[in-house]
Design goal:
alpha/beta, Aspartate Aminotransferase, domain 2, Aspartate Aminotransferase, domain 1, 4-stranded mixed β-sheet, 10 helices
């Protein structure tokens, strides 16, 4: 019932926060393939550790501002077409790819790309959408992204290792009522985490303070090593209290629906020495 004649794609995040329940990529992709609907995955929070194209995704996108660049200074994005979806076989869903484009002398994109493969989607995105919006990455931001990607595998390994240890520390803390992390899940959510994140479970880590909103504020204000910003994927450790920042415009009921409680804190664990990370968490929790 969720798919009708107007459906053009399924769109999902590999690791949607704040709940961090890993998305069932293959299961949804299989449904879409039967119906002629591609799955587009935002893999920003899980580069290197998750390979959505291997599980049936048709298109993968990233914010390079996060892990790929790794320094939180350069805005950008990447769109990756897996070349594995039959855009021509589903003409009724994709008229802009299968009907003459007047802005390119009547070119039909699924026909024009045949010598190259089934890449009508990414080619049109490049020569039409990018032309019309002007959303081209600056040369310096491109340089920063390329430099960052050279160390991505090493950084992701450290991010994941540090996050696992921070998770274990928080699970044992008396002021923490709940820890949200893929490897701390149970049942089907843990199964998905192990299936789709074999190389590590990421650096996003959430936890809930028993003291609620006041404790959350005190915790953030007491941090020394962690930076208080809304970004993720920085080499530096980051922290934010969503109830008083990113989700503050929502009602308490709306916040709960998204997974944000008064005492919820989101961490993006960096690549500093784990002893320094835990020491900062420990002293801030003591004051929360």
């Amino acid at each position: 019932d969720a798919t009708d004649d107007k459906t053009r794609c399924y769109y999902a995040e590999t690791l949607p926060n704040p709940k961090l329940n890993v998305f069932p990529i293959k299961e949804v992709s299989d449904i879409g393939r039967d119906l002629g609907v591609p799955l587009i995955m935002d893999n920003t929070a899980a580069p290197y550790i998750c390979r959505p194209l291997d599980h049936g995704a048709a298109v993968v996108m990233y914010s390079t501002t996060k892990y790929l660049t790794g320094n939180g200074t350069s805005i950008g994005g990447i769109l990756v077409d897996g070349g594995n979806f039959d855009w021509e076989g589903n003409k009724e869903r994709f008229p802009t790819l299968n009907e003459p484009d007047p802005s390119y002398h009547g070119a039909v994109w699924t026909e024009a790309v045949k010598p190259l493969g089934p890449i009508a989607y990414i080619l049109r995105a490049r020569v039409v959408m990018l032309r019309d919006t002007g959303a081209a990455m600056s040369p310096f931001n491109g340089f920063q992204a390329i430099q960052g990607m050279e160390t991505l595998p090493l950084r992701m390994e450290r991010h994941c290792d540090n996050a696992e240890k921070a998770k274990d520390y928080l699970l044992s803390h008396k002021k923490v009522s709940n820890v949200i992390y893929p490897s701390a899940k149970e049942g089907v959510f843990l199964e998905r985490a192990n299936a789709y994140l074999p190389a590590g479970k990421g650096s996003l880590l959430g936890f809930e303070l028993k003291g609620g909103k006041d404790s959350g504020k005190k915790f953030i204000d007491s941090l020394n090593l962690f930076y208080h910003v809304a970004n993720i994927g920085d080499a530096r450790s980051l922290a934010i209290h969503p109830a008083t920042t990113t989700h503050s415009q929502l009602t308490p009921e709306e916040q709960l629906k998204t997974g944000v409680t008064d005492g919820y804190v989101r961490l993006s664990i960096g690549i500093e020495h784990i002893d320094d990370i835990i020491a900062d968490l420990d002293q801030a929790l003591a004051k929360a």
